[in-house]
Description:
Elements: E1 5-6, E2 12-13, H1 40-121, H2 129-133, H3 137-146, H4 148-151, H5 172-183
Antiparallel strand pairs: 1-2
Helix pairs in contact: 1-3
Amino acid sequence: xxxxxxxxxxxxxxxxxxxxxxxxxxxxxxxxxxxxxxxxxxxxxxxxxxxxxxxxxxxxxxxxxxxxxxxxxxxxxxxxxxxxxxxxxxxxxxxxxxxxxxxxxxxxxxxxxxxxxxxxxxxxxxxxxxxxxxxxxxxxxxxxxxxxxxxxxxxxxxxxxxxxxxxxxxxxxxxxxxxxxxxxxxx
Length: 187
């Protein structure tokens, strides 16, 4: 019941069967190479067991290879992400390095702005100062500039304003005496 197939020219292949091979008897007086205690059923069971172990070994090897490939792929992805993070960290560091001079300049501007604010707040009414403290420095300066006329007291330099008069109107006699006094004539 075995069917023979031909592979290469001159070679005959026999497909494997699940039936145990029939024991061959050696010529008389010779010892068979498998020994006197050969049992075909036991040999066949051993061969089937070895095939089963070999199939399990191949399946386990395939699983190990697949697991190794997956682990390598995961490691490659992790390394790629790590490299991206390293590139991102390098980029962020260069951005910070570029912003450092601007931060120094901003600190100088803030110092100048506070000095200007201190100057502008001088002479403001005391009841306005707590309200200004609630604002940012730039907002305070904007508010002071916008409301300068109403916040600052009137200037005390220059000609003083005319005081209100409580004098009596001068008579003609008073005016004449005043002019005579200026001229140095005694009245």
